Fold each of these.
Amino acid sequence: MTSFRVGSASDVGQLRTNNQDSKLIADAVSVFAVADGMGGHQGGEVASAIAVETLEAVISEPTTASVVEAVKEANRRIFSRAEDTTELRGMGTTLVAIALVNQDGADEEIAWVNVGDSRVYLLRDGELHQLSRDHSLVEDLRRGGQLSEEEAAIHPQRNILTRALGIDQEVEVDSDSLLPLTGDRFLLCSDGLFNEVDPTTLVDTLTSGEDPDAVAHELVRLANAGGGRDNITCVVVDVTDDGGGATRAAATGASTAGGATAVAGATDATVVDQSLVDAAEPAP
Ligand code: MN
């Protein structure tokens, strides 16, 4: 049985007056999430809260498909709430989540889902992989070769999203799953973290800290020290025991879903974002 140790931190930051991020730590069902709400008045807070509450409430079975369906249900609930309430009109939210799944009775896997520009990272063997792909204008330009990584990181329009929950009646959800390994560390975060903390510092902090709660708080502290121009939320999920499933899969030659094992041999701690991102096409 796969087991986890989880820590988290969330902060309003240095400039905002309210925190529109929400997080979910549902240990009983092993579902963890971060949502970054947007929209005037209380809209952002309401949207991100509905997102994580719906996720916890409606995942009916431990499969990737069920998690994706829960995200779609969250989208519908936010959309109709915004339609019904004048002061909430136009609200939306990002959502990233990971969940322990067990599809068709096979080995336990970690499923991840993403809509928007919050992120799921995996630290494995000292290498940080960005599993999710941002749904943002700047990310589209970067992937199209019109912006470099460095230009994208500081682009003034990097807050423009191409996908979010609550904007349309239906939403496309990116998802994938991979076999967990003991020692894996997942990071779910809002853009208030990675817009303020450079990739090297991010890797160093995730690598050096033992306690996931202390690491989450340190990341928030660093984001505030870097400017804290947005709300900051981090959920750190350590795999303390993979239940032996990954070992069995390796022994039988089964490949790790999502290609996450293809990172062996690296010695430098770096952010590697293409090898896994490319495996995560949007759901049909
Ligand atoms: Mn944000």
Amino acid sequence: MKYNMNMKSKLINIKSMVNSVGELGWFQNGDLDFIIKRIYFIKDVPENQKRGLHGHKELEQIIIPLMGSFEVKIINRFEEVTYILDNSKQGLYIPKMSWRELSNFSNQSCCLILASELYDPNDYIFNINDFMEMINT
Ligand code: TYD
């Protein structure tokens, strides 16, 4: 098998402290199966717009709905599944060699992404047909 694909997506619980002064959640290296090399966020997505719509070869990610809600559709060798993310105490782990589509962003939603690799345009697969061929061969 040319590409490394041996995991399904999964929801993971985020350590946090919630009290009268608010919510504080955290991750640190050692808590995850990968070392975080990059973080980025997505916010202010207009109604009915989608993000993602591509696959990644080597990248693993955790997507956290810091504010609001949105949907994440994942396709990989093992599953085609859609998650509704609306709880900042749960992140979605996306394994290598997965297609992702983010949609239905609620007003004022904000999404934090922890990534296992530095930004690399060569890691992207933009054509769904190419992606399906890669996971099925
Ligand atoms: P992209 O990953 O395509 O986001 P989405 O699929 O949600 O639209 O990234 C959009 C643009 O931002 C792309 O032109 C590259 C740039 N970008 C970086 O330069 N570094 C990064 O870490 C990320 C995630 C994106």
Amino acid sequence: MIKKTRETFGSTFGVIAAAAGSAIGLGNIWKFPYITGEYGGAAFLVVYLIFIAAIGLPIMLAEFVVGRKGKRNAFGSFKRLVPNSWWRYIGYLGVASAFIILSYYGVVAGWALKYVVASATGILHNMSSGQILGYFREFTTSPFEPLIYQILFMFITGLVVIVGIKKGIEKYSKILMPLLLVIIIILDIRAVTLPGAGEGLKFLFYPDFSKLTSEGVLQALGHAFFSLSLGMGVLITYGSYVKRKNNLMKTASEVTIADTLIALLAGIAILPAVFAFGVEPGAGPGLVFATLPNVFQQMTGGMVFSVMFFVLLSIAALTSSISILEVAVAYFSEELKMKRKLATIMATILATLLGIICSLSFGILGDYKLFGKNFFDLLDFIAANVLMPLGGMFIALFVGWVFGKRRTKNELEYGGHINKLLLNGLIFLLRYVAPIAILIVFLNGIGFFEIVKNIWFKCNG
Ligand code: PHE
């Protein structure tokens, strides 16, 4: 049986800290700069920001509403709100996404751990920009070393989840995320004053829409979901731990703003440096690791900052990875009635094993490709650009049409009055804008319309 009283977050700030801790992670600091570099800079950023505001924020609210009302994990909340309906299967999508994301997330978090060690030994401090890139390549393509760090990170993730919600999550993210913000701002100041940084700022803020591709638009959408931890039940699960008196609208807005701000600040630290040191903006997943050590070299006390930065990056990754693992664990323990500890150990091992294949796809498994992507990129694509937007679409449809306006209003008003216009706007976005936009961007991104057009032209001569 499920325990009568579920754990709740101790304070309002605890909710924000935990949800922001989930949202802010490698997505902001590692992924955002490199996909912005890959998909055209400012134009990509504009599209991303539109998706965050018009689709991300409403869906975040929808997840909080479902979770707090349903009081269960992603699967169980739907089951409880609409018994005997197929909506609960959205929960399966979430559990599948959780495993996939956790697997490659652990790999990149392992890289961050490795860079803590590398920074502390000072080895990066005397390298040229080419050597720094070489160092990253050599490390990620070697068969064993990355696995050690990945396994270590996954072990810590599992351990924190076993310790429990409040103690595990709330305590750490409260102090450390603001500290990360401070370090990024210091990095920003150094990066934008580097000779040649202007080119990078132009790249980041001066849009050239001719550079935007349909795959880029899909990436922007997928990343809005990935970065805000949406569409897979993390925030349904967290919402279920939120007390009634908490104002969900305020919490969701604050988390969205904090997440977007950190991504932008990370972009301002990295892209100017990319141009200043002649790194290729489309260099892919290694971009941050190949760029930032150059910036630290140019700072007084750079070595200390470098260690602190990679420690905090690892912790930011940890507060995200525990939230991902929590989705799987809550499902196994509440729905399949498995012991929490056993569920955590099993889920961690499974995700680690899948992650090992991801890690090896940078080296010895690099030749195995599907749709031109290695295993790592493929899993990232499936989770962020397919499963999460799809999950988000269903959650939007559920709250917009099934849960409905009246109940949403009630749920949002526990923490304070909600303006009528705002409520109507939210429901409109959830009912129409989010689902239709997701469908179009998705079909366009996978080339569906191109195929239809070709068939049409063939048939009509
Ligand atoms: N939002 C996290 C990040 O940006 C990643 C994440 C994805 C966390 C999905 C939870 C769920 O790093």
Amino acid sequence: MTLLNKTAVGTAHGKIILIGEHAVVYNMPAIALPFMATTTTVTITSIEGETFIDSDYFTGYLSETPEALDGFKTALNNVCVYLNVSAQGLHIDVESLIPPERGMGSSAAVATALVKALFNYFEADLTDKIVKRFVDTAEKVTHGNPSGIDSTIVNSLSPIYFKKDESPTSLPLDMDGFLIAADTGIKGQTKEAVGDVAKLIQSAKDQAKNQTISAVNRIGQLTFQAKDAIIDNNVPILGEIMNQTHRLLKDLTVSNRQLDTLVQSALKAGAAGAKLTGGGRGGCMIALAHSMEHAKKIASELEKAGAIQTWIHPLQAEVGEAFHE
Ligand code: PMV
């Protein structure tokens, strides 16, 4: 394969959903943070012949990609149709530090970086709104019924308060606290978890049982309170809200044994609060600590309890540029 001269790059980053996952699909609010410790870079170089993908997940020709890359392929084809260019003759290199299928926004970040790289490569103007449109379509293929939170936050430099079908607002974050994110090492199952919550809600409606519906509404109320706790720099209250939310997510059947074990060990190590993050049934959890020293202790306990990787994220975000409509 001969690499030709032309090269273009696109980037995006991972995300942490602080609160509101799953309920956000049902028009409740959610709060998410850009997770700059995990980034994705897509580099496109011209080649002769069929488009070739080079990534940790898959290396080979576009015509041979596994089903898991159908969303990626959708983004590629849709952008090329939109720009009226060929989807062939591209060498697409994907370098991602975001662990895939762990509730950290990997699929949305890779699709975002790809769309940005393609527009750069074909020297076309791009707005955040256009990126999101292509990524949302790709995410529908990957996840079934996405709320759009992932496609927004992986391209936002600011934390956001998000509601489906509304413009996100950026949320100033200046708390005396640190988040620890821990990876169970087990692939999350966002599509299945979102599908099962939909079935629970449907059967709750059919049986006039409102327990599931009230769990979703309660997560919405807690998210609203979490926003106030963030603005008031109230770490203990935010921690308690996280604990209550984890219990509600368990009621929605989206936790699992490994996530519950890590949540328990974080609390035992003195965390102010802990919960799963993202789609659940695997993937990652988060815990809240009062200081960096405390965060390091919790991270070490989480690793002893089975986490394969941990990250510490300050809750003093520089307010970067929010997503632009
Ligand atoms: O697992 P992730 O990173 O794709 O997070 C999904 C968040 C959900 O609320 C479960 C689904 C959604 O589209 O909002």
